[in-house]
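Posting this for the archive.
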Amino acid sequence: MSETLLDIKNLHVWFKVYGGVLKVLNGVNFNVKIGEKVGLVGEAGCGKTTTMKALLRVLPNLALIPEGDIFVRGKNILKLNSRELADLRGRGLSMIFQDPTSALNPVFTIGQQLDDIIKYSAGSSGQKVANKKNIALSALHEARLPDPERMLDSYPIQLSGGMRQRVCIAFAIATARDLLIADEPTTNLDVTIQDQVLRLIKDLVEKKGASLILITHSLGLARETTERVYVMYAGNMIEMAATSLLFKKPFHPYTQGLLASVPRLSGGGFAEGIPGRIPNYRNPPPGCRFAPRCPYAFAPCTKAMPPLIDVDDGHQVACYLYQNGQEDRRNA
């Protein structure tokens, strides 16, 4: 079994707002092995990006982490000092944000920004990096950008949306990384460019032996790109399985609802949706946060959040329908 690269344990993240506190992440557990490609799926607003920002320690000042640990290669990120954190970000972790326009600085050329990234990745020792231009050109070439020499002198506004996203990928792979986090990397791109970008990310992580976390609300992208999938709902991990197992036999009612919502090319009427919406994080339900939307909810669901349990060959689900070895209550 591969060594664990990332291990998030019982992570809680709250946000201070006017009139109270938003309790967004509610005991998240999540892990990634070395060289593994993992998907993190769920509706918008369920806490996917918040989880990854906590991992990178780039949460806004109003965020609180009252409980939980985040280990990368055995080191607790939440306890690192600024120098240790800079080394980890510069050498171990990298993130492709979903909006390349806001991720790129409009007043500096691509070359200037790449130069800073390469210097920063040298670590807090301040050692000089030889052949920075060659490293930058190689990264742009690997990201399949045309005419890398010209690209170095270009400003972000001179590039198309697809080219900007490829530039962000080049930034992420310019130096060796253990873990690449891709946060909705195809959101603002047309369908043909989406496929190219996903294939590029997948090829690069396989070539470099890096691990990948793909954050997406598209089950199709997760199915094509990842080996294992976590399903997240309202700040909780509610199901986890190998990608093939999850799509073959989803257990949680929310996962089943997501799959039923996917349009079918074969037709057969409109895809079904999931009634209701994500709960208010200022005053979330005391039990399972999906209970108000779940057609199978019963008494225990409203009292406490169910733990993740193994239901089939490493397939885990947090649902009282399957607790205590009982049969699925929907068939009762």
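The chain has eleven helices and twelve strands. The chain has one domain: 4-92+176-331.
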